[in-house]
Amino acid sequence: MGGERIVAYCGVVCNKCPAYIATQKNDDNMRRDIAKRWSEMYGSEIKPEYVNCDGCNTESERRIDFTNQCQIRLCGMAKDIPNCAFCDDYPCDKLDEIFKSNPTSKNTLDEIRDR
Questions:
Q1: Pairwise CA distance, residues 42 & 38, whole Å
Q2: Distance (Å, rounded) from C-alpha 111 to C-alpha 41?
Q3: How far is C-alpha 86 from the chain's CA centre?
């Protein structure tokens, strides 16, 4: 599962995301474990069959369900940018929550932006 790094609009490195890894491996046991863990973590039922994702900014239709309502993703798509590091408004308040829960996302976007 090497290859080029896939970075979501919000800065999550898809290649390191457990849902992405389970999808690429087509591993149902991983999907069940992730669904259980995320259901507990987020206080919402996440079914194993929903743990399918090729990255939110890819052409694939396989994405975690909540990405279809993700304001960060919708904004990035509307602006036709690869991820938020390429946005003239970066950083914006849409990213506040993801940066709080996953500071690595900010580091990833900052690194891309600095290049």
A1: 6
A2: 29
A3: 16
